[in-house]
Amino acid sequence: MPTVQIGTFPVSEAFLSKPEIFKAPLDVIKTSDGHISSFYGSQVEDGKTGYFVSVWESYEHHQKLIGEPSYANLIEALKPAAAGKLDRNHFNVTGDADTALSSPAVEFVVFTLKADSSADKLVPLLEDLAKALNIATGAHPPCMWGQSIENKSKYLLIVGWDTVAAHWEAVKEGTDLHKIVVSITGQADLTIGHSHITKHKD
């Protein structure tokens, strides 16, 4: 089962002026066993949050890379891009990840369970949300969602869109998607961001 890693971090001036700062370390990561693809970019809303997303054949493949002596050098090479700590989560997906991540605009959502909620209450709503997103106008299905491997109280969602505006149009008040999102807010706190991320290539 493929695993998606989402890393978020406060971006440095070096990254804002030269996003290609990721290229050299990603040239190394792409040769790692089990690596499928990597993407990077900054958040549309604040311009200060960076996204680093990598797709792996499995969680174990990425953990193997982290355990290698050379990994410390990779982290050092990435440090100039960040002005602070990298927050990282992994989640497993059931199929294609590249379609959504290669879209013109990518939506990233983190759902954090409320103290009085549970997975049994939230998961059916996320299933309904995913079904509705996959047929939404302007979406690039399939969307991806799953529970964070690191933090069981968090769930992550990635959706590809034609534009950021297309997302907000699809979930505006009065739509079925809006009703589902309102139900979800009763069970979890939401953090939403968008990015025009770049796929790392040769």
UniProtKB/TrEMBL annotation:
This protein's name: ABM domain-containing protein
UniProt source species: Mycena maculata
